[in-house]
Structure formats: C-alpha cells, structure tokens
C-alpha cells in the first residue's frame, strides 16, 4: 500500500485544494475524513463525493453527533465550562473528537500521517495535533496552509486550474466554525473590535430586540445530565437541538468578546450558543440548590481550570482526566428541574426543585415555625471574627 495521509476534511476551499496540494508536496495518497458534529449546512454525502472529485483515494464520513453530545458536551456542561467566563468552547470541544477519529482512521487504513486545514495563527492547530499526539504518538501531523504555503489566493488559482468542484471562489467576509453546541464567527470587519456586529452575521439566533412573547421551558437533569424538556425525555443531542431553536428564537446566547488565544494574540470573536448558554445557566442553578457551599465554591475554580485545559487543546491530558473525576463525583445529587423564561436575549431561571435539594424551608423562613436557633449566631460570630480582632489589636499597637 502506498503511503497515505488522512486529512480532516470540511468540504471547503482550503481542505478541498489541500487534497491535491498534499499529494503533490508529500507524494502520499490522501484519504479525506469528514466528521459530522451537527454543523449543518451541506449534505454529508455531497461533501464525501466532493473529496473524491478533488482527488482523494478514499472519502470517509462519520456521524458523530450523538458521540459529540454524550461524550464531549455533557462533560462541558457538568463543568459549566466557559473560557474566560464567556466562551462556551464551541470549537474547542469538537476538535478532540475530530482528532480522535482522524487518528483512529489513520491507524485503520495504515496511514503514517494526518493533516488538517488550520493556519499557524489559531488555536485549532494545537488542539488537533496535541490530541493526535496523545492518541497515536507515532503519527505525523501536517498542515497544508501552515506548513506547505497554501494561501487563499493560491488555493483559488489551484482550484480553477484543476477544475475542482469548489463552491466558493472568493474570500468570504467571515471565517465561520459551527456545530450543534454553537457558532463562531471571526475576521472581516469584526477584526476591528470597535465595529459592532451586524444582524447578517447571525444564523443560530434571531434579533432579541424584536418584540415577541416569552417562552417557558422546564429542563430536567439527572446527575448533571439534561434528560427531558417539559417532562418529555430526549437524548442529549435532541435537547441541545430543541433548545437551540427555542432559545435561539429569543436571541439567547449571543456573545461578542475579545479573547486570549493560546498562541499569544488577542482575537475578536462573535459567538452564538443558545442551547449552551441556557443549559449552563440552568445547570449552575441546580448545583446551587444541591451542592454544599464548600463544594460549589471549590468547583468554580476547577471549572475555570477545566475550561482552560480544553481551550488549550489538552482534552486527553492527565490533569483534565483528574478534574473530570472530581467533577463527576460532584454530580451524584445534581438532579431535578429548572424552569426558565426565554425572552429578549436572556434565559432567566424562574423556578427550581429537586428531591436532593439542600434548601430547608423551615430553616430559611422568617415566618412563624422557623427552626433556625438564632441565639447560636452570637457565639459563632465571636469565634469567626476572633482572628480579625487579634490581628487588628496588633495593627493598632504598631
């Protein structure tokens, strides 16, 4: 068998031209691998055929939507994962899954290398290659755009000269990456952080300023995993899809942020993640009801570290696995219902209930029947503030 390279294939200009470009530069046969993570758009069969038409010796399509939801989105939700408190890891979560199938396909087909369409300026090159290195350390990673000087203008000329069936021939005003967890938009006029987003760049969400009646939804969780909407049980994937439509109708989950990339530069990004932001808000609220104060407080720091690790491409790293063990342990009592109102760009929690709740009405109430012994508080405060009192005396004496 001739030497082969397996290319993570999107069906777009760069990876389509990258098939021939890789073959010319390396002398290897190219296998195209497209992974469906709920990105929508074109039919996957059309993408598979395009790869063959562009010169791939084989074209493989994997439907990984449920795997993505169950094995990647669920851990992110349990971790309430938001990079820099704002970005719900839309692209960062899909990369280790794609890289996993990239490595496994390479092993299965006897390839000695894999390839991706990333540039040298972004995070995804790190995520792909770090994941492949963790799964199959003997594989070599190649990036045609970064390593083989495949620029956009060269790609267009190459596609025209070779009569490749490419849909786009001119540079899109935006760079877009999307999956079922959300949509990321960058470049074009967005590169000036002073420029406001325009309505045309959104696809998952409608304008929250348009007057419409609010919607209400009740989300049921079992051990941190969403299992039902309004009492009807669905797969995690279906719940995310349903909430994308319902929360997206109200403009929930629009995020405009300047974030710190792993490669050391700041990047202006616009995200829309209606289901992700609604689910994270609901899950956090249920944790507030069911987790002890010290566990909840400590977990917030773990969540930040978890999000950083995933953003930085270390999904398969040892620290990430250890943090997963802690997070999963915290979820054993995170079961119950959260009611949310969706309206005007906001997903607002309006009710919460759980058989595992730590909320005690008799302790919390200020009405007759209160079982909290307020006489205990005076002594507690004396002991609690004792270190402050002793150190204050020292400070005043000096």
Primary descriptors:
5-stranded antiparallel beta sheet; Argininosuccinate synthetase, chain A, domain 2; ATP binding; ligase; alpha/beta; 43% helix; Argininosuccinate synthase; EC 6.3.4.5; Single alpha-helices involved in coiled-coils or other helix-helix interfaces; Rossmann-like_a/b/a_fold; 398 residues
Map the helices and strands.
Layout lengths: L3 E5 L4 H14 L2 E8 L7 H10 L4 E6 L1 H14 L11 H20 L3 E3 L8 H12 L4 E3 L1 H4 L4 H10 L13 E5 L2 E5 L28 E8 L2 E5 L2 E2 L2 H13 L5 E7 L5 E7 L1 H17 L2 H19 L6 H13 L5 E8 L2 E8 L7 H4 L10 H10 L1 H12 L1
Parallel strand pairs: 1-2, 1-4, 2-3, 4-5
Antiparallel strand pairs: 6-7, 7-12, 8-9, 8-13, 9-10, 11-12, 13-14
Helix pairs in contact: 1-7, 4-5, 8-9, 10-11
Please give a structural write-up.
Belongs to the argininosuccinate synthase family. Type 1 subfamily. Its main location: cytoplasm. ATP binds at residues 8-16, 117. Residues 174-390 form the Arginosuccinate synthase C-terminal domain. One of its GO terms (cellular component) is cytoplasm. With 398 residues, this protein is of the alpha/beta class. It has three domains: 4-172, Rossmann fold (3-Layer(aba) Sandwich), CATH 3.40.50; 176-353, Alpha-Beta Complex (Argininosuccinate synthetase, chain A, domain 2); 361-397, Single helix bin (Single alpha-helices involved in coiled-coils or other helix-helix interfaces). The protein has 14 helices and 14 strands. The chain has helices at 13-26, 44-53, 65-78, 90-109, 124-135, 144-147, 152-161, 236-248, 274-290, 293-311, 318-330, 361-364, 375-384, 386-397, and strands at residues 4-8, 29-36, 58-63, 113-115, 140-142, 175-179, 182-186, 215-222, 225-229, 232-233, 254-260, 266-272, 336-343, 346-353. Helix 10 (293-311) runs antiparallel to helix 11 (318-330). The protein is elongated.
């Amino acid at each position: 068998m001739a030497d082969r390279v397996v290319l993570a294939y999107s069906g777009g200009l760069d990876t389509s031209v990258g098939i021939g470009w890789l073959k010319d530069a390396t002398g290897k046969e190219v296998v195209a691998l497209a992974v469906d993570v709920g990105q929508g758009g074109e039919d996957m069969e059309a993408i598979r055929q395009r790869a063959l038409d562009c010169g791939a010796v084989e074209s493989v399509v994997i439907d990984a939507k449920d795997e993505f939801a169950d094995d990647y989105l669920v851990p992110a939700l349990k971790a309430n994962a938001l990079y820099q408190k704002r970005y719900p890891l839309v692209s960062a979560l899909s990369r280790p899954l794609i890289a996993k199938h990239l490595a496994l396909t390479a092993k299965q087909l006897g390839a000695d290398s894999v390839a991706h369409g990333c540039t040298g300026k972004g995070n995804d090159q790190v995520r792909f290659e770090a994941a492949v290195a963790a799964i199959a350390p003997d594989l070599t990673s190649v990036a045609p755009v970064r390593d083989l000087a495949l620029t956009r203008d060269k790609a267009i000329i190459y596609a025209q000269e070779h009569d490749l069936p490419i849909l786009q021939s001119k540079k899109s005003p935006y760079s877009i990456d999307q999956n079922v967890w959300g949509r990321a938009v960058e470049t074009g006029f967005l590169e000036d952080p002073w420029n406001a987003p325009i309505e045309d760049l959104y696809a998952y969400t409608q304008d929250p300023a348009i007057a419409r009646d609010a919607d209400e939804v009740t989300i049921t969780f079992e051990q941190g995993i969403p299992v039902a909407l309004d009492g009807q049980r669905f797969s995690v994937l279906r719940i995310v899809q349903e909430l994308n439509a319902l929360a997206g109708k109200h403009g929930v989950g629009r995020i405009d942020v300047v974030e710190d990339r792993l490669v050391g530069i700041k990047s202006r990004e616009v995200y829309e993640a209606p289901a992700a932001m609604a689910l994270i808000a609901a899950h956090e609220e249920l944790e507030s009801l069911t987790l002890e104060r010290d566990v909840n407080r400590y977990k917030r720091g773990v969540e930040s570290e978890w999000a950083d690790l995933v953003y930085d491409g270390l999904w398969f790293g040892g620290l990430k696995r250890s943090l997963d063990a802690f997070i999963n342990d915290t979820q054993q009592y995170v079961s119950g219902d959260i009611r949310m109102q969706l309206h005007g760009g906001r997903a607002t929690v309006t009710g919460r209930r759980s058989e595992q709740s730590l909320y005690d009405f008799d302790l919390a109430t200020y009405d007759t029947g209160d079982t909290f012994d307020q006489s205990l508080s005076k002594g507690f405060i004396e002991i609690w503030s004792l270190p402050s009192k002793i150190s204050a005396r020292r400070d005043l004496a000096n």
